[in-house]
Amino acid sequence: MIAGLALYLVLVAPPIAAWLERTMAGHMLLQVPLLALAGGLVARGILGRHGAGLAGFNAAGIAGLLVAVFVAAVWMLPRTLDAALRDPLVEAAKFTSVPLLIGAPLALSWPLLPPVARAFVWANVISHAAVLGWLYRAAPDRLCARYLFDQQATVGAVLLIIAAVLLFALASYAIAGSPWQGRTVCRCAKRARTPASRRYPRRKPWSQD
Are 144 and 81 in contact (CB under 8 A)? Predict the structure, then answer.
């Protein structure tokens, strides 16, 4: 929780906020995800791993996930980024809604999601990143009035790279599984092959003089 609060205070500091908002990539791909991360760390520290499930409104993490996805889609729009740079009230709404309505619900809902739902979320993230990346690269005009055309093209390229990396990671996990899981299986198999006499040596009784 302390790490989340510290990260949030750093991000809302005027010099840091102005530095991140100088470029479209810093605004969309750094500031917004880091604000969500700060909110998630604070929520996990306060409510714990299964805090959202205790409230009775977040069964299987679906409700919290829907809230996080909807608010994240709003803050990925170019016009919303322009409004945040132009209007201090929208900027304040960003610093409030991203941690509370994206980071916190996502952090509390993710442990409750079944594996199929997690795979569905990752597939949608990859497809949306690829589509947005292609759109930013192929758009003939600027989509954000406050940022230059080359910054928009840079964001598009970064989104395409993120989509490719996530797709490769997801495919590798689906084919080979988690590397940590393999290490655990090997460790358990090695332990099973060890004779019981070596795993649990007999204790010699205390000798009495």
Answer: yes
Tokens found for residue 32: 């917004």
Q: Are 57 and 33 in contact (CB under 8 A)?
A: no
Is this prediction's pTM over 0.90? no
Residue 202 is which amino acid? R
Asked if 136 and 153 touch (Cβ cutoff 8 Å), the reply is yes
Check if the beta carbon of residue 49 is closer than 8 Å to that of residue 111: yes
Helix crossing, 62-75 with 78-86: angle to 10°? Answer: 70
Q: pLDDT per position in the chain (209 positions), as tens?
A: 789 999 999 999 999 999 999 999 999 999 999 999 999 999 988 876 555 445 566 777 888 889 999 999 899 888 899 999 999 999 999 999 999 999 999 998 888 888 888 888 888 899 999 999 999 999 888 888 889 889 999 999 999 999 999 999 988 887 876 655 555 445 555 555 555 555 555 555 555 54
| Lookup result for tokens 């292609």 | 134
